[in-house]
């Protein structure tokens, strides 16, 4: 068997259903298996997914094992020459797996491969290429110098942001959202470290692959990853879990720095978490005291790109969910600029979703054209006529 795809699910059945829909097309011509580990979801994920994607193998856990343990459970059962760790909130282009596997076949020293992850607005996710978070690199990131000097070989190493997006490149750290690895490399360096419950395990494994004499690569193959928009990186939970994972990594791989760095890192964790909480409370207090006007969210505009044959089903979904919507033909967006794609609507809100009829498009072509046409100005959304289901970065709507 050529490839084993491992996905860990927790209460995101509709997003995972979309991921598996894209994966089914991307796996054509590849001898592969797909293993989904469900981490004790309470949304009926397994029963639902078994009906819509019966070709997948499901492993249901009675408890939430965390990301590392759940992935390891499936990896130990896998039979592929390569193993792909894939997040359920991703959408994979049809060409990605074939081209990534061909690259690894042609580069026998490659232990792992990451890809060009897109945010929901078509822009590149910085997590696509990363450097080893040594104590110095971690400090530059926490101090904000990584963002301030994005082309600096020293300060920007955390995201390796000096690398071009459109060419393959050697990198150090791959994202766990899409991490394609050679099974032989995993046999040599070991599986994910289960001390990491969530976050940091991909950094640790990538580093161990490098230390084992293998190479990690970035390939300019596009996938969509919702996490770039949906994760509230200023939240207390994210800050504490992420930076505690970084602390585990430093203690494990840089023992000679651990005493020196433990206290500053812990201080940074609680400082960032405290600032996050204080910021939220400050905004609430200002609203209560009428010092600032409360933010009233505008209804987003949904621009449907579909054929006349499917327009009635679109209207049904729009009316049921009370959406503000306009319609374009399925292909007109390809020739016109993003600003003109709003169908002539007046008072266009800040948030605009470009909704694509997935009976008319391929993911790979859509990602490329959407990034070029709308990059950073609109959000991408997918409409599936057969289920009359609309999937955005923040919600799933049924017709």
TrEMBL record:
Residues 4-188 form the Glycosyltransferase 2-like domain. Its EC number is 2.4.-.-. The keyword NAD does not apply. It comes from the Bacteria. It is an enzyme of class 2 (transferase). GO terms for molecular function: glycosyltransferase activity. InterPro entries: Glyco_trans_2-like (IPR001173), Nucleotide-diphossugar_trans (IPR029044). The keyword Magnesium does not apply. Keywords: Glycosyltransferase, Transferase. This is Glycosyltransferase family 2 protein. It comes from Hallella faecis.
């Amino acid at each position: 068997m050529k490839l084993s795809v491992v996905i860990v699910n927790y209460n995101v059945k509709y997003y995972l259903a979309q991921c598996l829909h894209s994966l089914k097309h991307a796996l054509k011509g590849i001898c592969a298996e797909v293993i989904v580990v469900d981490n004790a979801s309470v949304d009926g994920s397994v029963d639902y997914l078994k009906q819509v994607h019966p070709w997948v193998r499901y492993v249901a856990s009675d408890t939430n094992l965390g990301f590392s343990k759940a992935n390891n459970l499936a990896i130990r059962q896998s039979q592929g020459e390569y193993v792909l760790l894939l997040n359920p909130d991703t959408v994979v282009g049809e060409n990605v797996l074939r081209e990534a596997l061909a690259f690894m076949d042609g580069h026998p020293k490659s232990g792992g491969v990451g890809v060009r992850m897109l945010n929901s607005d078509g822009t590149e996710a910085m997590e696509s290429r990363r450097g080893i978070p040594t104590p110095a690199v971690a400090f530059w990131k926490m101090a904000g110098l990584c963002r301030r000097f994005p082309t600096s070989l020293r300060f920007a190493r955390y995201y390796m942001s000096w690398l071009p997006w459109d060419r393959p490149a050697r990198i150090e750290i791959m994202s766990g959202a899409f991490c394609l690895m050679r099974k032989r490399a995993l046999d040599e360096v070991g599986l994910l470290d289960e001390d990491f419950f969530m976050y940091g395990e991909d950094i640790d494994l990538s580093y161990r692959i490098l230390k084992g004499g293998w190479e990690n690569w970035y390939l300019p193959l596009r996938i969509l990853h919702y996490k770039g928009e949906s994760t509230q990186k200023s939240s207390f939970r994210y800050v504490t879990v992420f930076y505690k994972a970084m602390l585990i990594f430093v203690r494990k791989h840089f023992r000679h720095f651990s005493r020196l760095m433990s206290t500053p890192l812990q201080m940074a964790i609680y400082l960032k978490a405290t600032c996050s909480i204080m910021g939220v409370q400050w905004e609430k207090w200002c609203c209560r005291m009428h010092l600032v006007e409360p933010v009233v969210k505008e209804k987003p505009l949904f621009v449907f790109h579909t054929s006349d044959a499917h327009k009635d089903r679109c209207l049904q979904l729009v009316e049921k969910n009370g959406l503000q919507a306009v319609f374009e033909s399925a292909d007109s967006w390809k020739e016109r600029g993003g600003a003109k794609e709003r169908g002539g609507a007046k008072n266009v809100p800040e948030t605009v979703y470009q909704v694509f009829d997935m009976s008319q498009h391929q993911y790979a072509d859509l990602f490329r054209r959407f990034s070029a046409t709308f990059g950073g100005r609109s959000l991408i959304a997918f409409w599936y006529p057969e289920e009359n289901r609309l999937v955005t970065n923040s919600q799933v709507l049924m017709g």
